[in-house]
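To illustrate the input format used throughout this study, we show a single complete record. The first block contains the structure-token representation of the backbone; no residue identities are included at this stage. The design step must infer an amino acid for every position from geometry alone.
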């Protein structure tokens, strides 16, 4: 582990059990991600990509191994410490944009920053403008296109200036042209904010835009 290692995954394994059987979904997965760098996680459907992302986002629990984020060990971390990590250090962008329908664009973008009590209005105003959302600030999610909604979700995730941005197929719902534009913007903003990016994608084109590509095959890093 080097000094600027932000995410350290060591020998992580996870099984899902049900109907009397237990199935290994992740086996002995290890990787490091440095601050300011990006990794694309690729692999066939069912290879365990989302499961790994959820473990890193402290949304689920591993059976063995260890995950550390910015020096914090997720093993045995209690629920309130997990929530705090998700509020202050890690942000998530999903394929489904998960915007709050009753809040307008400006309110959605600043939502998590407000909840974390970390509103930096200069950064939020700049983010909103860079994302091309200034003119749309008063609109509600249902009045936006898919690409616009995803840009709001990216703005909301970056508004808190997370150390680690997790993204699960963030452009999976968008057409190719919109996807490329949204990805370019997201990568620029991630780079500018100094965050590390851990992104799940099926797209080789998207993966090639990141610093490194890690391939999962049947729960193991290939
Ligand atoms: N809650 C769960 N209970 C039982 N099995 C699960 C659960 N969640 C996922 N799985 C199984 O674990 C395996 C890995 O799922 P995961 O969603 O991580 O794959 P993925 O690589 O992200 O797939 P995709 O690219 O299709 O989204 C799959 O076989 C899936 O059926």
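Output of the design step:
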């Amino acid at each position: 582990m080097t000094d600027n290692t932000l995410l350290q995954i060591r020998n992580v394994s996870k099984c899902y059990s049900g109907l009397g059987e237990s199935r290994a979904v992740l086996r002995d997965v290890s990787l490091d991600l440095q601050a300011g760098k990006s990794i694309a996680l690729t692999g066939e459907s069912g290879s365990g990509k989302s499961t790994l992302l959820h473990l890193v986002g402290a949304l689920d629990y591993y059976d063995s191994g260890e995950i550390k984020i910015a020096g914090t060990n997720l093993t045995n971390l209690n629920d309130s410490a997990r929530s705090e990590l998700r509020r202050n250090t890690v942000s998530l962008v999903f394929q489904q944009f998960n915007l709050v329908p009753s809040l307008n664009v400006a309110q959605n973008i600043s939502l998590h920053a407000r909840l974390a009590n970390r509103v930096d209005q200069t950064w939020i105003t700049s983010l909103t403008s860079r994302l091309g959302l200034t003119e749309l600030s008063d609109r509600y999610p249902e009045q936006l296109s898919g690409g616009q909604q995803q840009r709001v979700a990216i703005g909301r995730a970056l508004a808190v200036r997370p150390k680690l941005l997790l993204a699960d197929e963030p452009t999976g719902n968008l057409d190719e042209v919109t996807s490329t534009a949204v990805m370019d913007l997201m990568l620029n903003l991630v780079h500018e904010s100094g965050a590390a990016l851990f992104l799940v994608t099926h797209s080789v084109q998207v993966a090639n835009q990141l610093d490194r590509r890690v391939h999962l095959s049947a729960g193991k890093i290939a």
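Structural context for interpreting the output: The chain is about 35% helix and 30% strand. The CA atoms of residues 42 and 203 lie 8 Å apart.
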